């Protein structure tokens, strides 16, 4: 996992407001730019010390991102680095702080469109930052492509100021072309575009520098998007109590598919136990009872055929969280089972819907929303991109300018459920507007059954009565951390086996 960031994630509009509020409160804009440049110069010289490089090219754009570049150039020159500056815009067209920063640069400035990278040890990308308002034009795109080619061919480093130029700071989309950076230094708070793909892949090592904007600038921004890291959900993390017992840790029920599709639900069930549920029962079709029973030890198995059988097993109120979908099969009977799992009850049973529990409603998602909205407790849905597209066509059919985060939020509002939108940049969105973005997950997680394990971890946390949004966020993090601990060669079973180590780390941090 990357080093910790501040919890809040901003859009570029929110960042601009925080900036404005800070300047209105009396902090000079130039002092923010100076602090930003100090952080850039520090990151640059750390890399140059490592590579023993001395020669730096700073590419400056038309706005304040370019202004940061001019100031960083001056600071690095003062540290005796050999610095050249190239500008995308004629200097007489610069305005405000950027013009002031350029005026304080004591050496000649060349045109960025014609600049050479010959003999350069490191390039600073200060072309566009959070003010990027449209796709790069052909000149800027050509420059970015030339920079990327130089980086790949020379093996030298590129440091991006605030965000790699061409990445949309809010959506993470590439606007025509985008810089591929080795390190990105952003300011105050990370932006959504740093963590959503493809933006994250352009950032390299991302750090967030304090530049003098006070946290109180967040007060009026109503920030609802957070980095998915332990700080977000640590206070709600369920831990066994000295005076507790297994029932006080909750009882998760996992619904199994037919005889040839039982592995998925067993993975979920084992993961729910490892996530801390006091008891886990597998509701199995009678035809699959023998295979399930012979493959399980600490997970209990009960016969349950179809929706009726499930209703009978669920008549025990102590089964307070149900996971359904892995290996279930796409059918009308599956729809009926999901409706049974979500049926209004006098008590708050929680539910996780994954895989076939979602796909079974592809032809009539409104039917599923009726059930999720009426459900008595928290409901978490865990679609991957294919399942999301099938179920949330309305959130998908747009001009292409909405981000994964926007889509997940919209889906959560439409369904009244927490939506965990899987992938390398897993987003969790709650119907009340809260959302989290997982900053990192190893691609070794792309292996059969990995999603089934995630479903089980969520069910285990929900059984322990964790809030739906926090449980889904925590599960996504634990899942990713377990995979990171295990490392290369991972299969789904290994995620379950690594969960105790994740708990040990979380408990150790809790005791500090
Ligand atoms: N916020 C803070 O607290 C602090 C922010 N700081 C820094 O300021 C940066 C934000 O500065 P910014 O607002 O001037 O925007 P920036 O990214 O330089 O670009 C805007 C310029 O680009 C132009 N332009 C836009 N798109 C274009 C395109 N496709 N192709 C061509 N041109 C395009 C646009 O022109 P226009 O749209 O007006 O035609 C305008 O001239 C931020 O990333 C950080 O580095 C720090 O100093 C510390 C404090
Ligand atoms: N490239 C990737 N990087 C990080 N995590 C990934 C990547 N691809 C998939 N994952 C994660 O792996 C899991 C796969 O789940 P899913 O697609 O449902 O698989 P399955 O159905 O086989 O269980 C999800 O948690 C997803 O976020
Ligand atoms: K930049």
UniProtKB/TrEMBL annotation:
Alphabetic keyword roster: ATP-binding, Isomerase, Lyase, Metal-binding, Multifunctional enzyme, NAD, NADP, Nucleotide-binding, Potassium
YjeF N-terminal domain location: 15-219
EC number: 4.2.1.136, 5.1.99.6
Catalytic activity: (6S)-NADPHX + ADP = AMP + phosphate + NADPH + H(+); (6R)-NADPHX = (6S)-NADPHX; (6S)-NADHX + ADP = AMP + phosphate + NADH + H(+); (6R)-NADHX = (6S)-NADHX
Binding, K(+): 65, 125, 165
Residues annotated for (6S)-NADPHX binding in this entry: 64-68, 129-135, 162, 264, 327, 384, 452
InterPro entries according to UniProt: Carbohydrate_kinase_pred_CS (IPR017953), CARKD (IPR000631), Nnr (IPR030677), Ribokinase-like (IPR029056), YjeF_N_dom (IPR004443), YjeF_N_dom_sf (IPR036652)
Cofactor note: Binds 1 potassium ion per subunit.
Biological-process GO terms, alphabetical: metabolite repair; nicotinamide nucleotide metabolic process
Location of the YjeF C-terminal domain: 229-506
Cofactor: K(+); Mg(2+)
GO MF annotations in UniProt: ADP-dependent NAD(P)H-hydrate dehydratase activity; ATP binding; metal ion binding; NAD(P)HX epimerase activity
Sequence positions that bind AMP: 422-426, 451
Family membership noted in the UniProt record: In the C-terminal section; belongs to the NnrD/CARKD family.
Function: Bifunctional enzyme that catalyzes the epimerization of the S- and R-forms of NAD(P)HX and the dehydration of the S-form of NAD(P)HX at the expense of ADP, which is converted to AMP. This allows the repair of both epimers of NAD(P)HX, a damaged form of NAD(P)H that is a result of enzymatic or heat-dependent hydration.
NCBIfam families linked: yjeF_cterm (TIGR00196), yjeF_nterm (TIGR00197)
Known partners and oligomeric status: Homotetramer.
UniProt name for this protein: Bifunctional NAD(P)H-hydrate repair enzyme
Originating organism: Methylocystis hirsuta
Name of the gene this protein is made from: nnrE
């Amino acid at each position: 996992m990357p080093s910790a960031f501040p919890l809040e994630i901003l859009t570029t509009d929110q960042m601009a407001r925080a900036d404005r509020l800070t300047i209105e409160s009396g902090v000079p804009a130039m002092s923010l730019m100076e602090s930003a440049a100090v952080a850039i110069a520090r990151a640059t010289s750390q890399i140059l010390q490592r590579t023993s490089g001395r020669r730096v090219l700073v590419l400056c754009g038309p706005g304040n991102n370019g202004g940061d570049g001019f100031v960083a150039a001056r600071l690095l020159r003062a540290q005796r680095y050999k610095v050249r500056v190239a500008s995308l815009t004629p200097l007489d067209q610069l305005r405000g702080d950027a013009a002031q920063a350029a005026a304080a640069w004591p050496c000649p400035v060349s045109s960025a469109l014609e600049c050479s990278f010959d003999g350069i040890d490191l390039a600073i990308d200060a072309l566009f930052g959070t003010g990027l308002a449209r796709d790069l034009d052909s000149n800027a795109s050509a420059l970015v492509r030339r920079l990327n080619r130089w980086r790949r061919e020379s093996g030298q480093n590129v440091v991006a100021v605030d965000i790699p130029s061409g990445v949309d700071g809010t959506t993470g989309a590439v606007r025509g072309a985008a810089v591929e950076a080795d390190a990105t230094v952003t300011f105050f708070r990370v932006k959504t575009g740093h963590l959503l793909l493809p933006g994250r892949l352009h950032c390299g090592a991302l750090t967030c520098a304090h530049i003098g904007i006070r946290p109180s600038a967040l007060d009026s921004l109503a920030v609802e998007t957070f980095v998915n890291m332990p700080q977000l959900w640590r206070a709600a993390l369920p831990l066994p109590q000295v005076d507790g017992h297994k029932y006080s840790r909750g009882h998760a029920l996992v619904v199994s598919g037919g005889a040839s599709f039982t592995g998925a639900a067993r993975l979920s069930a084992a993961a729910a136990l490892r996530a801390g549920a006091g008891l886990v029962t597998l509701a199995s079709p009678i035809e699959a009872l023998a295979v399930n029973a012979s493959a399980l030890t600490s997970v209990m198995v009960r016969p349950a055929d179809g929706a009726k059988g499930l209703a009978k097993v669920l008549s025990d109120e102590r089964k307070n969280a149900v996971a359904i979908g892995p290996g279930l099969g796409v059918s009308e009977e599956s729809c009926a089972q999901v409706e049974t799992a979500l049926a209004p009850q006098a008590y708050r049973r929680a539910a996780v819907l994954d895989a076939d529990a979602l796909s079974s409603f592809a032809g009539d998602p409104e039917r599923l929303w009726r059930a999720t909205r009426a459900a008595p407790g928290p409901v978490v849905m865990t679609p991957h991109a294919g399942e999301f597209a099938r179920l949330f066509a309305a959130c998908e059919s747009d001009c292409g300018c909405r981000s994964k985060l926007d889509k997940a939020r919209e889906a959560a509002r439409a369904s009244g459920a927490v939506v965990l939108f899987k992938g390398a940049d897993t987003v969790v969105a709650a119907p009340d507007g809260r959302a989290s973005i997982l900053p990192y997950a190893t691609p070794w997680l792309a292996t059969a059954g990995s999603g089934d394990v995630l479903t089980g971890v969520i069910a285990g946390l929900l059984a322990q009565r964790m809030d739906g949004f926090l449980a889904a966020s925590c599960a996504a993090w634990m899942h990713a951390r377990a995979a990171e601990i295990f490392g290369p060669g991972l299969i789904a079973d290994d995620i379950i086996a690594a969960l105790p180590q994740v708990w040990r780390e979380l408990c150790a941090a809790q005791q500090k």
